[in-house]
Each structure stands twice: as C-alpha cells, then as structure tokens.
Amino acid sequence: MSLQADAPPAPDGTIVFFHPDLGIGGAERLVVDAAVGLQQRGHHVVIFTNHCDRNHCFDECRDGTLDVRVHGEWPIPMSIFNRLTIVCAILRHIQLLVQIALSGELKALKPRAFVVDQLSAGLPLLRFIAPDAPILFYCHFPDLLLAQGRQSALKRLYRLPFDWIEEWSMGFAQAVAVNSEFTKGIVARTWPRLKEKVDTKVVYPCVDTTVDSSANDEASLSGSPKVILSINRFERKKNIGLAVKAFAAIPEEDRRWVRLVLAGGYDPRVAENVEYHTELEALATSHSLKHHTLTSFDAASFSSIPHETSVLFLLSIPNPTKTLFLGVARLLVYTPSNEHFGIVPLEAMLARVPVLAANTGGPVETIQDMKTGWLRDPEDVDAWSAVMLSVLRMPDQDVRRMGADGEERVRSLFGRDNMALRLETSINEILSQKYARPSLLMPLSIVISLLLAVLAIYIQIS
C-alpha cells in the first residue's frame, strides 16, 4: 500500500519551507523530496526561495508538483564581484522574510511549522514574525567548516561574525535535523553548547523509489563503450579530478572501449563552476585523454561526440538524461571526501549500479563495502584505479548481483516514505512542545546580527 494511501487527513495550516536557491544539487534535492513527501502525507506545503530558474531546477519545481514562490531575487545580487556571497545570501533571505510578512502572504498561509535549511541567520526574524509556528532547521553541514580560503587572517576576521551568527541563530529553532550520524557528530563537536538549547535529529535524505530501475539490464551492461559515471556539481571540493586521474591510470588496452562521463550541476553564473570545468579539461589533456563537452543532451548531440572521446563532460543534465546514463553505467564513482551524506550513491544503487566512494563521511553509512560497492581512501589514486579496472573485467553477473544488493538496500532504508515519516515525526514533536514566545528583545538581537554583518562587509572591503 502506498504511503499516500496511509497518510492522515490534512491538518490545518501550511508547512512552509525556506531555501535560498532552488537549483540542482544535493541540498535542493533533499528539500524537494522532503516537500513532496510531506504533501503525500497529506500536508499543505509551500516553498519560498530567492531564486528558481525553470531551466536549472528539478522537475517538481516547474511542473506544478510543488508550490514554489520566488521573492527577494533583486535588487540584492548573489555576490559582488564574486565576493561577499554569504553577506548577500543573508540579506536576500531577510528581504524575502520582510517582503512576505509585510504583504500578508505568509500570514494568509496560516503557517503550522517552518522547515528552514542552509541559512540560519533569518531564524530570529522568523520567530518574531510568526511566533506561534515552531521551526525545524535542517543543517546539511556547519557553514563555518565549509567556508573556503580561510588561511589569511583577514579572511578569518571576515568570517568571525558569520560563524557567531550561525551558532547563535540556530538556537532559535525548536529542533535541528541533520543528514547523517556523521554530520550529527560534526555538529556536536563544532557547537557543543547547541545541544543544551535544541534537540538534534537524524533525518536521512532519500531517493524516489517509485522509479523503474529495470533499465540497467543485461543489454546495457554488455554495451559498448562501457561507462564509468561521475555525477557531482562542478566544484573543487567535489574532487572530480580524482576520477580523471584514476581513469587515466587504467592500462590503455583496458580503457580503449570505456568512457568516463563527468556529469552534474553547472551554473554559468557561478565562477567556480566555469573555472573548475576548465581545470578538469586541462587535467584530462595532461593525461592524454581526449575530451568533449555537451551543454545539452539529445540524439543529435550524442551523435556529435567524437568516437575517440575518453572523457565526456555533461553540464547540468536534466533528470531524464541522468536516468539514461545511470541505466548504462557499469560503475558510479563518487569522489568527495567527508561528504555530509551523498544522495548520488543512493540514486546509483537504486539504478542497480555499484558505487565506488570515499571511505569518509556519509557514504560509509549508505554503501556496504564489497557488497553494494567499494569504499576507498580518496588520497589513494591507485586504489580507485584498481577498483575501476576490476569492475571493467568483472563478469556481468557479478556486477548485476552487486547492483541488486544496492537496490534492495536503498528501497528498504532510504525511500521517500522513510524520510517523510522521520520528518513528519520531528515536526509533530516540536508542535507538541511548549516553548517561550520571543521577547521584546528579539528585534534588538536582530539589529545586532545585522550590524555584525555590516562589520564583516567593512572588514572585507577595507
């Protein structure tokens, strides 16, 4: 029986989500799945966001499945000369909150509970605007640990106010959810005082287990060329270069009829995406690997791929294209180290594709080494290359067996119904709790946080 059939009657009020940019990525996939899952449980759901490009978002955000409302997209930019990104994100989020509060749009929804992720800086203001609706904050990972380029004293000084705001503002949530036991441990070590204020819950991300995974059949496994697939955003922290280096280390006679496909999120507005794609092309060239890039994928574009291409770049592939390549992949390589969770390995296992991933972070909780895939040291290129080679030489029936084990694991532990139930339980728990209404000092604390943001701007530009 489907989860929706078992769902309780729809309660009064709306569960309101806030997410800064509904593009294509793991965090966005989690928000979309959470919102769809709660809808299937009978809840009315609305997502507010600062940006959602219909040409660069998940299908549910543009086909009417979800009620997505965009506010505060301008005049504040995403960044200023590729700097002050966190400042702009906070100001855009606050602008959104103020706009929907003053217009009466938020009040009209009769918010029952809020689910906020990525940006916690607006939680004090949200508590002040709608004090009767509790907040569940989904912490994908502490932002202070994600910030790049913090070696200089100036950069550390610039980040200091935001690190303080992140921890302080999370205390205004009634509960904090995290995406894995790994992240829960990181949060506890990063903010030891936070657990005294709010409860931390593990709510695993999910994949849609209603999809047909039968595409990866015997014919696709024996096809030519064989495909080793990587799906990640084009960001340096995703360590996609590891896949290129490991692939290049395979003996030439073994990779002659193999293609490494590097696919994933790519936004031309984001400088790092553009730069890293260029760096990966240069890396492939340095290893004498012929490469080709496609910004869209259809029958015509596929036929245009040069026959000698060893590395194929697919930029911002839609879901049907991703499904197609998962259907013909012999192995998925997931290269990030200390990834908070990692949704792509689940998608691959659901499609009956074995996964090679780093032996750190979330994949340790999702992949069973030597059963549904392999966990290897991301610093050991030779170990990754050895797994790739072994999969290329492995009998098809062994690949199918590992794929079947992976699919069974995902369907039993990581389906959308599992996530929806965990999330609904967490929301019901905070709804049942009694908590103090915000005091008159709340506006003052919000002003203080904004002054700290202004101070950070001054530090950055002075």
UniProtKB/TrEMBL annotation:
Residues 222-293, 310-406 form the Glycosyl transferase family domain. Residues 24-210 form the Glycosyltransferase subfamily 4-like N-terminal domain. Pathway: Protein modification; protein glycosylation. The keyword tRNA processing does not apply. It is found in: Endoplasmic reticulum membrane. Belongs to the glycosyltransferase group 1 family. CDD domains: GT4_ALG2-like. The chain crosses the membrane at residues 440-459. It comes from Hypocrea atroviridis (strain ATCC 20476 / IMI 206040) (Trichoderma atroviride). Coiled coil: none annotated. It catalyses: a beta-D-Man-(1->4)-beta-D-GlcNAc-(1->4)-alpha-D-GlcNAc-diphospho-di-trans,poly-cis-dolichol + GDP-alpha-D-mannose = an alpha-D-Man-(1->3)-beta-D-Man-(1->4)-beta-D-GlcNAc-(1->4)-alpha-D-GlcNAc-diphospho-di-trans,poly-cis-dolichol + GDP + H(+); an alpha-D-Man-(1->3)-beta-D-Man-(1->4)-beta-D-GlcNAc-(1->4)-alpha-D-GlcNAc-diphospho-di-trans,poly-cis-dolichol + GDP-alpha-D-mannose = an alpha-D-Man-(1->3)-[alpha-D-Man-(1->6)]-beta-D-Man-(1->4)-beta-D-GlcNAc-(1->4)-alpha-D-GlcNAc-diphospho-di-trans,poly-cis-dolichol + GDP + H(+). Its EC number is 2.4.1.132, 2.4.1.257. Keywords: Endoplasmic reticulum, Glycosyltransferase, Membrane, Transferase, Transmembrane, Transmembrane helix. It comes from the Eukaryota. The keyword Glycosyltransferase applies. GO terms for cellular component: endoplasmic reticulum membrane. This is Alpha-1,3/1,6-mannosyltransferase ALG2. Mannosylates Man(2)GlcNAc(2)-dolichol diphosphate and Man(1)GlcNAc(2)-dolichol diphosphate to form Man(3)GlcNAc(2)-dolichol diphosphate. Its main location: endoplasmic reticulum. One of its GO terms (molecular function) is GDP-Man:Man(2)GlcNAc(2)-PP-Dol alpha-1,6-mannosyltransferase activity.
